[in-house]
Amino acid sequence: MKLDPRCALLLLLAYLIALSSLTPGHNLLLSLMCILPLLLLAFSPVPRADLLAQAAYVLPFSFAIAAVALLRGNTAQAVFFLLRSYISILTVLIVTKLVSTLDLLRAMERLGAPRFLIIVTEFLMRYLEVLRAEADAMRLAALCRGAAQSKLIAASSLGMLFVRSLERSTGIHNAMLARGFNGRLPRLYPMQWRIADSFTLIVGIAGIAGLRWAL
Amino acid sequence: MIRVSDLRYQYSDSGPVLRGINYTQTRGESVALLGANGSGKTTFALHLNGILQGQGQIEVDGIRVASETLEAVRRKVGFVFQSAENQLFLPTVLEDIMFGLLNQGVAVEEAKRRATQMIESLNLEAYAARNPFHLSAGEKRRAALGGVLLMQPEVLILDEPTTFLDPPGIRSLTRMLNQQSMAKIIITHDSRFAIETTTRAVFFEKGQIVAEGPTGEIIDRFGWV
After folding, report:
1. What is the interface size between A and B, counted as CB pairs within 8 Å?
2. What are phi and psi of B169, to 5 degrees?
3. Percentage of chain A surpassing pLDDT 90?
4. Cα–Cα distance between A44 and A47 in angstroms, integer?
5. Taking CB atoms and an 8 Å limit, are B102 and A186 in contact across chains?
6. Closest to B100 (Cβ–Cβ): which among A130, A179, A188?
7. DSSP conformation class of B33
8. Largest pairwise CA distance in chain A
9. Could you write out the DSSP letters of every residue in B169-221?
10. Which ipTM score applies to this complex?
11. Which of B64, B37, B38, B39 is nearest to B53 (CA)?
12. Which of B95, B99, B108 sits opposite A179 (nearest CB)?
């Protein structure tokens, strides 16, 4: 049975709030909370190694905070910061693999996030592939004309990519208007909240809250 | 069906693009817009759908094109853009073809039924659930056309529809267009395609219509082969 994306999103939020409320010293609690995403990772059909590697991208950023703790000689605190940020990102990545990002965006919309923000994000995601194709075409054209892979060329290409993207976005907008677009993207598959979603949400939030505050 | 009087337009960063266009088109008539790049063909066509609004008067089927009539006008005038990729932006071919119908307020199930029929008639059944970006140029063109045809417009505008199409793709498109009974405006540099799909041509030069007549005659007169 597939969870309603709103249920998945609310559970994710509850988990992240509980995780972010942990302070250095809650080492046992942090370890226990790490078990939840690791169980999810172990028993879900997701590319485990990829996700574990991708989550590590956050480490250089959180290392800035951890470095302060290290300078103060508090190694345990530094490890705590690194582990908490790593687990947070890992959980988000797992959820975005289990629930499509478009579904999560729609869930956010249904939960009251600004529609304009959702539409902009949707378009950004849909056209990442087109942007990548434009960038590849430009890179190939530059290489065919003997360009070296210099930073100067990369910088000027980036500017041109923005110009081409603007041109393309104008074209897309015109094509949408021509087909009667009124500022609202039609939803093909309406979400259906079932009793099972309510049950999962209640049990999930109770479990997370119990783990965080009752232990 | 279409009546345009003294249409003038200028982009903010250029000189006049349209310099007093007068144009009429009857119901069901197919017209080719010919002329050099930058002569104003596409700019003119964008006015018929209300995407651009210049000075002058435009009427489509008795409705004056203005901000308050855009919804009604866009139900009557379908526009297939030169870049099919710009037109196809939803995650699947099926959803994209349904887009116009859903904007018209057609219920999802009904829109899906009609879109499925259209997809079958376009021989795109195998691609219905696929991302439009992964189609070939000809398939993208057919999908873009299908999304507009499904809205059953009374005027169909096609901007450079043969771009990126191979000869079989052009033949297929020609057949498909000739089966449609609505009025058509076809912007093209492909003289053979123009002759096979239209009966009349107008020739644009520097933002003005400088000649009009039977498509073959206009092509011969301007050596547009």
Report:
1. 71
2. -65, -40
3. 31
4. 9
5. yes
6. A179
7. E
8. 66
9. HHHHHHHHHHT--SEEEEE-S-HHHHHHH-SEEEEEETTEEEEEEEHHHHHHH
10. 0.78
11. B64
12. B99
Structure-token pair, residue B169: 């793709």
CB A71 within 8 A of CB A95: no
At B135, is the secondary structure helix, strand, or coil?
coil
- H and E: helices and strands count for chain B: 9, 10
Q: Over the stretch A50-103, which tens digit does the pLDDT of each residue have?
A: 999 999 998 888 888 888 888 888 888 899 999 999 999 999 999 999 988 878
Packed helices A101-110 and A75-98: angle between N→C axes, nearest 10 degrees: 90
Residue A196 corresponds to which tokens in the numbers above?
Answer: 């099972």
The predicted pLDDT at position A93 comes to: 94
Whether residue A2 contacts residue A98, with contact meaning beta carbons closer than 8 Å, is answered with no
Helix residue spans in A44-114 (DSSP H): 48-55, 59-71, 75-98, 101-110
Distance of CA B191 to the CA centre of its chain: 17
In the sheet that holds B55-60, the strands lie side by side as B16-25, B2-10, B55-60, B63-64
Amino acid in the structure at residue B121:
S
